[in-house]
Amino acid sequence: MTINRLPTLVSTTWLKQQMCRHSNPSIAGKITLRRSLRILDTSWTPEPEVDGYKTFFKEAHIPSSLYFDLKQVQTSGQKGPGAKFPIPDSNRFQDYVEDLGISNDTHVIAYDRFNSRPSFRTWFLFRLFGHDKVSVLNGGLRQWVTDGYHVTVDEPDVEEGEFEVNFRPHLLRSYDEMLKNVNSQAEQVVDARGRGNFVGENENDGHIPGSKNIPFGSVFNDDGTVKSSSELQKLFDNVGIDLSKPLVSTCQTGMTACAVAAAAHILGKEDVPVYNGSFTEWFQRADSSMIARQGKD
């Protein structure tokens, strides 16, 4: 592993080895972590009444991990018209991650117990705020347990981190920028929604004219791990996406688009921006002529 290019994904075996290297001896039964590594359980559901910390994290998690709450970190974000999940403001993000003991030199590992939506969203947010030292645990908690590693209910002690934000606006696209792109076609657009939503099976479905479809689920194997690089490359090739050219990722709410951006990152495509408002905003704001259906632009 190089200093300049940490992997997008890490394996459970690699993580287990790193946990041994980066943990201090326990004191009074407590695990104390060095700031060089932070493992974040990002398990999340969109229902506002579900507390992920109580419902998921306290039930069981990877030893030495902390809970990263996407709902809490986004509370002070600016939604804008139609955006379901706001981007946090810089001060909120900085304060939140520092409370988790994260500094600019910390390697952050994100995982969850479901389908990797929140893990890749977390990966994207850290990169958006200037932190490249972030990876996703391939296969998440499911793979961790499958590989025979244990879980716990214990929580580690951490010291406050020192995190300086370097916000990267070039990793976001707005509605106006996407509208302009429909005519200019300066950037390719890939949509991570399911095929039925993309082609417009229902009246509230459809897609941005000119966009191509790589469904979120197609990025993964049946066991929840990410497909091989050659298989990921085929996904882009099969829909006519050229990774040597500019690319934007979108979806329904800005969540699963992050996984497609990560798939491109695995293939060496740096800095794929995400349209955070995604089709939720597009459908609310765009003229009906700007909503393509049945695969016809």
TrEMBL record:
It comes from the Eukaryota. Pfam families: Rhodanese. The keyword Repeat applies. Keywords: Repeat, Transferase. SUPFAM superfamilies: Rhodanese/Cell cycle control phosphatase. Residues 33-153, 183-291 form the Rhodanese domain. PANTHER family: SULFURTRANSFERASE, THIOSULFATE SULFERTANSFERASE. This is Thiosulfate sulfurtransferase isoform X1. It comes from Aplysia californica (California sea hare). The lineage of its organism: Eukaryota, Metazoa, Spiralia, Lophotrochozoa, Mollusca.
